[in-house]
Amino acid sequence: MKSRRSYRAFFAGLAVLAGVAAPAFAEEPVQPIEPPKEINLAQAELGKKLYFDPRLSRSGFISCNSCHNLSMGGTDNLKTSIGHKWQRGPINAPTVLNSSLNVAQFWDGRAADLQEQAGGPIANPKEMGFSHTLAVDLLASIPGYVTEFRLVFGTGEIDIERVTHAIAEFEKTLVTPNAPFDRWLLGEADAISPQALEGYQLFKNSGCVACHYGPGLGGSSFQKMGLVAPYPTHNEAIGLAAVTGNEADRFKFKVPTLRNIELTYPYFHDGEAQTMTEAVDVMGRIQLGRTFSDAENASIVAFLRTLTGDQPRFELPQLPPSSDTTPPPIPFD
């Protein structure tokens, strides 16, 4: 992922070569979201089916879309998700939208990329409650999937690597360009309101951009929750320390993207902030040591609302039917 400096140098260089002024965002710490590039369409179409297929769960009821609902900002709007046997998830489900921009996946960064992340919930007993072996065997019992895997990968053999690769390829398409703020960055002066522009200036000058920068306005680093003042929570997640084993990483979480934030409530890893107003207030106090006035808070929230981009649009997939040998779901064991 490009740093803020390299983005500026890149666009300034293009401007010099073209003999024109640098784009408006060349000197900004935030860059516009770009449409997806270099997507394998066949793999993405297969991945879309797998993303929506609840048969990848033991109950036959939970799909990737259950917790990362593409009609709800790529999340489920719950503090923590509901998993197999109605189990309560351990942490707030982050949005899948623009997740290809993240430095790593999950709040604690335990998955290096989208493909590694895609395999986690399937085999998690508190999420989809299945196993990779059972999921692969189930897919192999469905003639329609065998045919599609052969067409897409050149072999009818189905394994978890191909399954997760296809899901990840679909998830790469889930970017949300053309937000009002992106249009402002690209020179459309009236794309956002004066209040939102004031909020952006506050956002920059208060130090929010130290963590929320780049095209994703987040997702590029891990930071401690509670830099200035402790963050009180009953959630047991310890963040990056669970991956590194380093006590210095305790309570360090991947900085969440602010893209589409008005759709992805509730906020924080424990889902305790229900509104953007509350989230801005808490982050100001515990991360910046600043108490925003009501007017300042409202301006920042107005800016955050300009980060909602064009949502992914596509035809819902028609899933291939199970065969007589397909194992039935077990929702009530």
UniProtKB/TrEMBL annotation:
Cited Gene3D superfamilies: Cytochrome c-like domain
Signal peptide range: 1-26
Organism of derivation: Mangrovimicrobium sediminis
Names of the cofactor(s): heme
InterPro entries reported for this sequence: Cyt_c-like_dom, Cyt_c-like_dom_sf, Cytochrome_c_Peroxidase/MauG, Di-haem_cyt_c_peroxidsae, MauG/Cytc_peroxidase
The entry's keywords: Electron transport, Heme, Iron, Metal-binding, Oxidoreductase, Periplasm, Peroxidase, Signal, Transport
Record's comment on post-translational modification: Binds 2 heme groups per subunit.
Primary localization class, coarse: periplasm
Cofactor note: Binds 2 heme groups.
Subcellular location per the Swiss-Prot or TrEMBL entry: Periplasm
Region (Disordered): 312-333
GO cellular component term of the entry, any: periplasmic space
Domain of life: Bacteria
Protein name: Cytochrome-c peroxidase
UniProt binding sites for heme c 1: 64, 67-68, 84
Pfam families: CCP_MauG, Cytochrom_C
Coiled coil: none
GO MF annotation list: cytochrome-c peroxidase activity; electron transfer activity; heme binding; metal ion binding
Family matches, as PROSITE patterns: CYTC
Binding site for heme c 2: 208, 211-212, 283
Domain Cytochrome c: residue ranges: 42-150, 194-308
